[in-house]
Every structure is written in C-alpha cells, then in structure tokens.
Design a protein that fits this description.
Strand content: 5-15%
Distance between the termini: 96 Å
Order of helices and strands: HHEE
Strand order of the largest sheet: 1-2
Structural class: mainly alpha
Number of strands: 2
Shape: rod-shaped
C-alpha cells in the first residue's frame, strides 16, 4: 500500500518537475495549479477511502468485542453454575462423611454389645446408644425383627 502511495506521489512530482523546467509563463503556472488541484483532489479521495476503511475496521472490531463479551458472560454464568454444583456436592459429601462416621461408630458399638453378650450370655441391644436415626433390632426372646426409629420399639 505504501509503495502505491509513493508511486502516486512520484507521478505528481514528476509532472511538476517537468513543468518546472519550462519558463514561468501564465500557461505554465495554470498547468501547475491544475496539477496541484488534481493532487489535492486525489489526496481527498484517498483520505475518504481511508476513513471508510477505518470505519469498517472499527465496526468489525466492535462486533468482535461484542461477541467476546457475550461469550465471556456465558462462560461466567457457566462458571457460577459449576461453582454452585461444586458447593452442593461438597455439602453432600460432608453430610455423607458424617453419616458414614456415625454408622462406623454404631457398628463399633454393636460389635462391642455382641462381644459383651458373649460374656454375659445375653444380648442387650437396648443398653447401647447409637448415633444413626434407625437401628435394626435383632430377635430376642419375643421374636420381633424390624427397624427402631427414634428409640420407638412399637
């Protein structure tokens, strides 16, 4: 592009040099003025073309910025959704860990009760305190098998 502009400039400078070698008559001066006016007009046309190109580039840049902004907003929304899912998952994991710990404690308590029943020759699961909400009651003298909820054996 710069090469083309230099050729354009050189063309007008050549015309003016060619006229500069002639005498400074009225006709020569008129021709110089005409050449300079053409040069100015061509420069004006070039400036308009450059302005139009700059406006088109600016429009494209604004479209790309808008597109990137939309994509960034979607990514931000997705990130927030994933963060919420992660937090919920973490809460569920923590709850399950606590529940697992309670079950392990209940299992340990139950194993202890069974071991003690071997010594006493009588199984007493009611003496043990369990962490979980429900415990399976083993058969005793009254053959009753079922879930005990909130220490209610009915």
């Amino acid at each position: 592009m710069k090469h083309l502009l230099n050729e354009f400039k050189g063309l007008y400078e050549g015309k003016l040099r060619h006229l500069g070698n002639k005498d400074e008559s009225k006709d020569t001066l008129k021709m110089k003025v005409t050449i300079l006016q053409s040069y100015v007009n061509d420069l004006g046309d070039q400036n308009e073309a450059l302005i139009q190109m700059i406006e088109e580039l600016e429009k494209l840049a604004n479209e790309k910025i808008s597109n990137l902004d939309n994509r960034l907003q979607k990514a931000d929304q997705l990130l927030n959704e994933q963060k919420l899912k992660w937090e919920l998952s973490k809460e569920e994991t923590d709850r399950l860990r606590r529940e697992n710990l309670n079950v392990k404690i209940d299992l340990h308590t139950l194993v202890g009760a069974i071991q003690q029943s071997e010594t006493n020759e009588k199984f007493d699961d009611c003496a043990a305190k369990y962490k979980s909400n429900s415990i399976y009651k083993f058969a005793d003298n009254i053959t009753k098998v079922g879930w005990i909820l909130n220490n209610d054996e009915k």
